[in-house]
């Protein structure tokens, strides 16, 4: 406070000056608080817009993901339908039963299965140099093979004849 020295002299002018200084400081502080509030409000508004934009992008990505999943399901059903007649009768019944069970799997169950498969494949990758291949499950091997095939396809580009002819 600049008016503090005048207060010690005991004059009225010094005390009045101190009050004016106090009023100025309070008014100035209120203006600064108001400015900061407006800045925070503008920041909040921009963050809200960004959040809305990200939510919209997330929804679009989920729609795209679901579309891709539907395409994958359609292709897998086609492959199963093409291969099924070539299997022995006993295996055909097993495959049909597996397809029926697969059609009844819910999204949370599927996520749980995927997590388990990833954990198994990671354990398998760690144990591979130590143990022989005998005794492993066909499903685990097919999962590992499909992962390897997908990574190979990503590196090498399209693998079907129709995809090669397009490039």
Automatic annotation (TrEMBL):
Keyword Transmembrane annotated: yes
Annotated region described as Disordered, given as residue ranges: 1-24
Entry similarity comment: Belongs to the WD repeat Groucho/TLE family.
Residue spans crossing the bilayer: 123-144
Biased composition (Gly residues): 1-19
One GO cellular component term: transcription regulator complex
Domain Groucho/TLE N-terminal Q-rich: 22-122
Entry keyword set: Membrane, Nucleus, Transmembrane, Transmembrane helix, Wnt signaling pathway
Localization annotation: Nucleus
Protein name, UniProt field: Groucho/TLE N-terminal Q-rich domain-containing protein
Statement: the UniProt record of this protein carries the keyword Isomerase: no
GO molecular function: transcription corepressor activity
Superkingdom of origin organism: Eukaryota
Main localization category: nucleus
Taxonomic path: Eukaryota, Metazoa, Chordata, Craniata, Vertebrata
Example of a GO biological process term: negative regulation of canonical Wnt signaling pathway
């Amino acid at each position: 406070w600049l008016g503090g020295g005048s207060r010690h002299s005991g004059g009225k002018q010094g005390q009045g000056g101190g009050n004016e200084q106090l009023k100025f400081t309070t008014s100035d502080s209120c203006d600064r608080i108001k400015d900061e509030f407006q800045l925070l409000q503008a920041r909040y508004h921009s963050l809200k817009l960004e959040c809305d934009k990200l939510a919209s992008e997330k929804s679009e990505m989920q729609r795209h993901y679901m579309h891709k999943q539907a395409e994958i399901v359609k292709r897998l059903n086609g492959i199963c339908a093409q291969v099924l007649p070539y299997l022995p009768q006993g295996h055909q019944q097993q495959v049909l039963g597996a397809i029926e069970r697969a059609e009844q799997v819910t999204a949370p169950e599927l996520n749980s299965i995927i997590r388990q498969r990833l954990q198994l494949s990671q354990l398998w990758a760690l144990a591979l140099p130590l143990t022989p291949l005998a005794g492993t499950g066909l499903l685990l091997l097919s999962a590992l093979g499909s992962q390897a095939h997908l990574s190979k396809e990503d590196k090498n580009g399209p693998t079907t004849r129709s995809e090669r002819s397009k490039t």
